[in-house]
Structure formats: C-alpha cells, structure tokens
Amino acid sequence: MKKTAAVIAAAVAVLAGCSSQPSATSHDGNAGHDHPSSAAAGADATAHDDADVMFAQMMIPHHTQAVQMSDILLAKQGVDPRVVQLATEIKAAQAPEIQQMQGWLTSWGSPATAPMNHDSMQGMVSEKDIEALRNAPGPEAAKLYVTQMIAHHEGAITMAQDEIATGQYGPAIELSHAIVDSQQKEIDTMKAILQTL
C-alpha cells in the first residue's frame, strides 16, 4: 500500500514538472502586479480541480477569438494608430497564454476544449459581429473593434475571477490575476480611446 502511494506521488510529481509554466505576471508587460506570486502558492502547486480544467478549456477559445479579432483589424488600412497598438499588444499577450493553457490541459490528460457552445461564453463576440468587423473600413472597424473588445475583456475578467475563487492550480490562479489586472487596464484605455474615435 505504501509502495503504491509512493508510485502515485512520484507520478504526480512528474506531471507537475511537465506542466510547470513560466510566470504569467508579465501579461501586460509590467513586471510588478499588486498580487505577489506567492498568493497562489498557498494551494498545492501540483493539484488541479474541475474549475481549473474548465477555466483553461473556456479561456483558450476566448483568447483565440481576441487574437482573431486583432488579426482582422491589423490587416486593415486607415486604423487609428492607438487601436493598432492596442490590437498588437492584445495579440502578443494572449497568443502565448493560449499555448500555456494548452500545455496544462495536455499534462492533465484533458480535452483541449469543453463540449459546449462557445458563443454562450462570457463576452464572446457573435459570428455576425465578427463579420461586421471583417467588412468594415478602417476607421469604422477601429470603433467596432474597441467596442467589441471591451465586452470581450469584461467576459474574460469574469471567467478569471471565477477561477481565482474556485480554482486550485497555482499557475492558473496566477494567470487569472494577471488577466484581471491587465485586461482591466486595457478596458480603461479602450473606453478613453472610444470617446475620441
């Protein structure tokens, strides 16, 4: 019995080693966040629960859509430089986080996506609105992008707050804090930009 427990403990340790990820506290390029990385260290760093799995499965398509929207905008001419910069930063921040979360799911042996309608997730932009963004000329697309991304970010913050409240996996909780911090700052920036577009 003790031998079995030791084998299980060793297996968990190996899995934890495979799934360890670099800190996500530099999400928005700022090294200093108000929350210390040790805040998530109170939980067992190797353990995860259903909330962690659901967080990653939902946040991956959420982030993927933000990258898609940014790509659509960045392909256009005549877009306000502030919006171009914002879209570039959002894409640069979220693409690596997608890879990070995919790595967690792989190490946990969990499916890459949840069996659910992604359109029903918090803040997801409808295909109709994505098409409107795709078809809009540059200046109009800038307004659409900022308006859509504010709601999109608000949804991501809600999902991250749920993970902070119910998750168990330290790196996922740390990433959630980074998402809340950086995306709230981006929301504030986008609201200010929107007033002058």
TrEMBL record:
Q: Which region ranges are annotated with the description Disordered? A: 20-45
**Which portions of this protein are annotated as coiled-coil regions?**
none
**Keyword Lipid metabolism belongs to the record:** no
Q: What Gene3D superfamilies has UniProt attached to this entry?
A: 1.20.1260.10
User: Where does the record place the DUF305 domain?
Assistant: 52-194
Q: Which InterPro entries match?
A: DUF305_CopM-like (IPR005183), Ferritin-like (IPR012347)
The protein's name is Uncharacterized protein (DUF305 family)
Native organism: Mycolicibacterium fluoranthenivorans
